[in-house]
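input
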Amino acid sequence: MAAQAPLTVLLAGPRGFCAGVDRAILIVERALEKYGAPVYVRHEIVHNRFVVESLEAKGAVFVDEIDGVPDGRTVVFSAHGVPKSVPAAARARDMFYLDATCPLVSKVHSAAEHHHKAGRHLVLVGHAGHPEVVGTMGQLPDGAITLVEDVAQAETVALPAGRELAFSTQTTLSVDDTADIVATLMRRFPHMRPPRSDDICYATTNRQAAVKAIAAKADAILVLGSPKSSNSMRLVEVAKRAGCANSRLVQRAAEIDWRDYAGVRRLGISAGASAPELLVQETIAAARAHFDVTVEEVETAREDVHFNLPRALEG
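output
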């Protein structure tokens, strides 16, 4: 049997689950323990099929809207946040609901409320149709928020004359892309109020920094995550921009054709904030079937963030 070619796996750290994702999954698991199955969840609790299917196996039922939830059943709102109309509809039906919105997304919602009450028009930098953006825009009346997706829109967007302005951002954007968009907006609207602290979350920022660190050394990069996951998609873009053109997103190791990596000697691996570590280890194990693998951890930050569960689930 021929000797396997050597492969160094550059393992990005931090990677994978963030505190908000940990909290959201735990909310569903604790709700199942406390209230029994089925527990209904509006939308995917986080954007990862493995996570969703694991929770389904425990008794979670995922629905598009709460009108798919029978009377008397517990419902959980996803980590991405929801428009105000959703909890209002739940209250109208006397439903018991648990809000798994990431606290860092809730911070953006609170800022939107604050600016609106102060009479400011809000610009939201984000991706149209993403659940987080839908949720944030749904905190305020129609027309109170203008969405800007890229630099081109920032250059041409028309905002209400004579109004004070403020901006917020989606929490899972590319740090570099967002900086370019914000710079364009601030050049055109120099008195626009920025957030009190950066809206892009610590986990997104840290994972992008770690991918940048391995991109300069890697022949190829694999990011474990869902194509629905904004932060996972951004990691691939960041890797390519940082110099590793051979970067791609995969959901599971089974998707990888290892023949494509025959000439690769240094393979970077990371995972989006909604991808469990199990999928990273599964990918490394799959690589060992084809290469003589050495794993090298490349850690750029340590994370110790923890978010409390809703009061109804504490204890």
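quick obs: Residues 19-35 form the longest helix (17 residues).
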